[in-house]
From TrEMBL:
The chain crosses the membrane at residues 22-47, 67-87, 141-159. This is PTS sorbitol transporter subunit IIC. One of its GO terms (biological process) is phosphoenolpyruvate-dependent sugar phosphotransferase system. InterPro entries: PTS_IID_sorb. It holds the Pfam family EII-GUT. GO terms for cellular component: membrane. Keywords: Membrane, Transmembrane, Transmembrane helix.
Amino acid sequence: MDFLVKLAENFIGIFNAGGENLVGLITGILPTLIVLLTFVNALIALIGEDRVTRFAQFCTKNIILRYSLFPFLAVFFLTNPMCYSFGRFLNEKQKPAFYDASVSLVHPITGLFPHANAGELFVWTGISSGLTTLGLSVMPLAVRYFIVGLIVILIRGICTETLTKMMWKDPANG
């Protein structure tokens, strides 16, 4: 009998935990994302969608800017996870590489710009804790971490775009 009681308690416990998680999202990140999305759309409307689109197209025409400056601007201004919405300015075959570059930048940017990925700040504090313990400045590490992050996202973006092009080729046409 105890087994059935424990089974029932654990079964409903899964749903209680899911409900608590949902309430946490509703009172935590979802309002922030909704307000941020509203702000960004309002800002684009004020600047003019044509101007924003032209700037985005300028950034995305060049492969170097597409996988360095463009993901940086997305992560810096929109933060994680809203930054991925910048992919709307890219053609379909470039979106996987943009996502790969952007998702790879959300940790390296945190040392210099904690707002960009505040939910994962523990990664940066874990990395920098040794310097902090020694009483040393973390800024040289933050700058190096950021620069290496930019190099890595550029490499990842180019590699992912190349792989995406290969996978999207029509096998019937060689």
